[in-house]
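Protein details
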Amino acid sequence: MGQLVDLRQRIAIPLYTLSDAARYSHVTRSTLGNWASGYRVAGKSYPALLMLPEEQPFEQTALSFENLIEAALIGHWRRRGIPLQRIRRAHALALDEFGEHPFARQRIYVGGTDLFVEADASTADEGGHTFTVLTRAGQHTLGGIVADYLQFIDWQTGEGYACQLRPPEGRNVVKLNPEIEFGFPNVHRIRTETILHRFLADESIEEIAEDFSLREDEVEQALRYEWALPKAA
């Protein structure tokens, strides 16, 4: 129980500046700022999609690991062609049903441009699980046509909390975990930015791998990950 409580605390504390979170979730800083604070367009107000930590220690907007997971998912869904207003409807419904940070505490599934959450696993023997269609006012449907796009998130067993992000660009080598290196991208506890800085200082991949007890292919993947990140704002 103590370990679970500790995880719940760690995923909720502020770890990332707005710029860092934007880079790791592959969205622009201004877009993430809108999701974090809300915005107004053509006289219409849109509320925030992210519930930020009360503590803000960086003298600027700070995000938690839960916020990073939510931002990464929303950005991923937007790139898959799901309209933001549809995501907003799904978020509002999930918020009412599951409470705070629903996208970081429930497995969300995707089918076409709809978002689903499992509603009743007891129907599995009848041909498939029942899903609530979050983007269609809570309608229900049987699974089978639903594709899961959450393979890059690890979940706390039995609790549903997102506990680790394995970004697709990292190829299961690079990981972000709130309990390791303060949630920053790393390979076996070595930050990817450290590996990049060593490489830019004209150290060879072989030398870096030897110094950090990594395989050369792990160093190469860390470099690919860093190069794939958007430039800092």
Summary: The CA atoms of residues 80 and 113 lie 8 Å apart. The chain has a mean pLDDT of 86.
